[in-house]
Amino acid sequence: MDLKEIQALIKFVAKSGAQEVSLETEDFKINIKTGSDAEQPTIIQAMAPQAPVAMAAAPAPAAPAPAAAAPAAAAPADDNSNYITVKSPMIGTFYRSASPEMDAFVKVGDVVKPGDVVCIIEAMKLFNEIESEVSGKIVKVLVDDQTPVEYDQPLFLVDPS
């Protein structure tokens, strides 16, 4: 079930006047509850235990549809699709250099190869060097120096060509 189908189901339940609707499949379970004291329906979604295996395969067919809509909506999104995103492997504080007096590990235009240090992320007083897993040219730095980053947050865009 994709996002549009879920939204359509919510609208249908809200218009029907039903107090609660539950839908359960092999991959997921959705409960939609409406009440007289709530203006919007409350949605509770929980994955079934076997869902990680099924969900890994399910998004692949659904992914091209949103991706196809993105280029039509905005041309800049299409430009970034050629780039590889280097993401944060952990939560912490992002540093572009080993110390404030030193130059940044990488700048826009620098060429990196696997194993090159691109930044440091400090987590619990430990400074972790983050190495590039791809080769290419740094196109954009997406995070400001000395700012907090989340797990899997994009840090750099790399042009692999």
Provide a brief overview of the structure.
By secondary structure, the chain is α+β, with helices and mostly antiparallel strands. 25% of the residues lie in helices and 34% in strands.
Blueprint of the fold:
Blueprint: H1 3-16, E1 20-24, E2 28-33, E3 42-47, H2 51-57, H3 59-62, H4 64-73, H5 75-80, E4 84-87, E5 92-95, E6 111-112, E7 117-123, E8 126-131, E9 136-141, E10 147-149, E11 154-159
Antiparallel strand pairs: 1-2, 2-3, 4-11, 5-7, 5-10, 6-9, 7-8, 9-11
Can you offer a commentary on this structure?
The chain is built from 5 helices and 11 strands. It folds into 2 domains: 3-78, no CATH class; 82-159, RNA polymerase II/Efflux pump adaptor protein, barrel-sandwich hybrid domain (OB fold (Dihydrolipoamide Acetyltransferase, E2P), Beta Barrel), CATH 2.40.50. The longest helix is centred in the first third of the chain and has 14 residues, at 3-16. A 4-stranded antiparallel β-sheet has the order 4-11-9-6, with no helix packed on it. It has a 4-stranded antiparallel β-sheet with strand order 8-7-5-10, with no helix packed on it. It has a 3-stranded antiparallel β-sheet with strand order 1-2-3, with no helix packed on it. It has 161 residues and is of the alpha+beta class.
State the CATH architecture of the largest domain. Beta Barrel
Tally of discrete structural domains: 2
DSSP strand count: 11
Order of neighbouring strands in the sheet with most strands: 4-11-9-6
Let me know the average pLDDT. 75
Portion of residues within helices: 25-40%
Unreliable residue runs = 50-78
Shape: elongated
Per DSSP, the total helix count is 5
CATH superfamily of the largest domain, by name, is RNA polymerase II/Efflux pump adaptor protein, barrel-sandwich hybrid domain
